[in-house]
Amino acid sequence: MSDLVKLKVDTEACIAGGQCEMIEPDTFLVDDDTAIASVIGTGSLPVDRAAEVIDRCPAQAISIVNSDSE
Amino acid sequence: MATATTAPNITDPSLYLEGIPHERFAEMRNTPGIVWHPYNDGGFWAVTRHADTKTVSKNTATFSSAVGHTNLWDLEADALEARRSLIDTDSPDHTRLRRLIARAFTPKNIRRWEDTVREITVDVLEEFMEKGSGDFVAEVAAPIPIRVILTMLGVPVKDAGYLVELSNYLVEGTGETQSLPADAFGNTTELRLLPFNSPASHALFEYGEALGEQRRNEPQDDLVTTLVQAEAEDGDRLSGSEYRNLFHLLIFAGNETTRTALSHGAMALADHPDQWARVLADPELIDSATEEVLRWSTPVLHMRRTTTEETELAGTKIGAGEKVVMWYASANRDESEFENPFKFDVGREHNPHFSFGGGGAHLCLGAFLARLEIIVLLQEMAKRGLSLNRTGEPVRAPSNFVHGVLSVDMEVAK
């Protein structure tokens, strides 16, 4: 199994582009009222899929949670 | 510095009457660095590769949308201010404006409109099938998106015809010639202060303001109500000018671009019957077919940015205050990103097309609505086993900005 990384959304930067929810619907959800995305479920993805969703975010609001600082 | 001198001028609107100049774009993609392209008294850096387009689109601090204009020509400061919409802003203004209205366009809130989209699509499609042939643009591709956006906005049915007429004048405004006199619709504003330099914009502003006023007093479950009620946590609201320009943007963008995608989509499916046969045999391909229709059609050919500082792109030095133009039409055929880019492939797996922008903050607000409209049209065609034949050449828009199809005759295949 490939390594999993935990992801977070910068709620100040999010513009509700919805790309994260489209690509990874089990990991991201755009709230209908606040129009801000958040991490759902385990919030973790394999490294390659995490890289893809980070790249596709138009607001560059998704990043990997640094395990040392949590 | 590589300079295009004898090569076709990719800004010449008449060039696009024959379609996108793909050969010229391929040459530019294969030229090391970024090609400088003359335009009027100056010029711009023509970004034609997928990777470079993404770099420009994502770096909004260096490549600004708020300076100069997002079209090829510059606007004077007062005109830029009067015409400013979501498209011509950088953060924090862009983030603030976008968040005020983004709620209405989230994937889930767009799915709430699926029944409406389906009803309109079935209505339009069945009428076309009954007739058996006709201009696909006028009879199918144009009515679907305009009826959908007007319904979403909450425009009363009795006014739909008037707004369609105004919207068509705007489309004309993307070309070189205008058929309207400056004082049409009672306009007294200088044309250069109006979007697309069109007096029809004045009429749209007036209509939008009257409807907004009405909804402020009597709220309904529609987008105009959402817009006039939009308020951020800190009490921030849309200004009068922001509301006007946003209403205008939604009418234009919700109409012209999806019309283009549906027109090119229908042509591509008619011209590649093997690909449509794959969809008919396996409707699960509709999602990837929709993305391929989007890549293939590239409804908006380019967007411009202006550098705020000296920078370097693909090894080319670019000065501060220079125009940088992202040619999505070229990025969507970049052979280093797409396998076999000139093949229309409804099952394409890796398809990071730039038909909704180059990956940065200005990602098309209506992306999920446009997708829904294409998906529903393909679903309803597939459900009916409807195949189309093209019976004439398309009449294309003379525009270097929108990949418009003015008309194309099609018939229901027997």
Name its key features.
heterodimer, A: 70 residues, alpha+beta, Alpha-Beta Plaits, B: 414 residues, Cytochrome p450, five-stranded mixed β-sheet, 16 helices
Topology:
The complex is a heterodimer of chains A (70) and B (414).
Chain A: E1 4-9, H1 19-23, E2 28-30, E3 37-39, E4 44-46, H2 47-56, E5 62-64
Antiparallel strand pairs in A: 1-4, 1-5, 2-3
Chain B: H1 22-29, E1 35-39, E2 42-47, H2 50-58, E3 63-64, H3 77-83, H4 93-101, H5 107-111, H6 114-131, E4 133-135, H7 136-141, H8 143-153, H9 160-173, H10 199-217, H11 223-229, H12 240-271, H13 273-281, H14 286-297, E5 302-307, E6 311-313, E7 316-318, E8 323-327, H15 328-331, H16 367-383, E9 388-390, E10 395-396, E11 405-407, E12 409-412
Parallel strand pairs in B: 2-8
Antiparallel strand pairs in B: 1-2, 3-5, 4-12, 5-8, 6-7, 9-12, 10-11
Helix pairs in contact in B: 6-8, 6-16, 8-12, 9-10, 9-12, 10-11, 10-12, 12-14, 12-16, 14-16
Short structural description:
With 70 residues, chain A is an alpha+beta fold.
Explained architecture:
The complex is a heterodimer of chains A (70) and B (414). Chain A is of the alpha+beta class and 70 residues long. Chain A has one domain: Alpha-Beta Plaits (2-Layer Sandwich). In chain A, 21% of the residues lie in helices and 26% in strands. Chain A is built from two helices and five strands; from the N terminus they run E-H-E-E-E-H-E. In chain A, the strands form two sheets. A three-stranded antiparallel sheet of chain A has the order 4-1-5. Chain A has a two-stranded antiparallel ribbon with strand order 2-3. In chain A, 36% of the residues are buried. Chain B has 414 residues and is an alpha+beta fold. Chain B has a single domain, classed as Cytochrome P450 (Cytochrome p450). Chain B has 16 helices and twelve strands. A five-stranded mixed sheet of chain B has the order 1-2-8-5-3. Chain B has a three-stranded antiparallel sheet with strand order 4-12-9. A two-stranded antiparallel sheet of chain B has the order 6-7. Chain B starts with 21 loop residues before the first helix and ends with a strand. The model of chain B has no long low-confidence stretch (mean pLDDT 92). Classes of the chains: A alpha+beta (70), B alpha+beta (414). At the A-B interface, helix 1 of A face helix 4 and helix 5 of B.
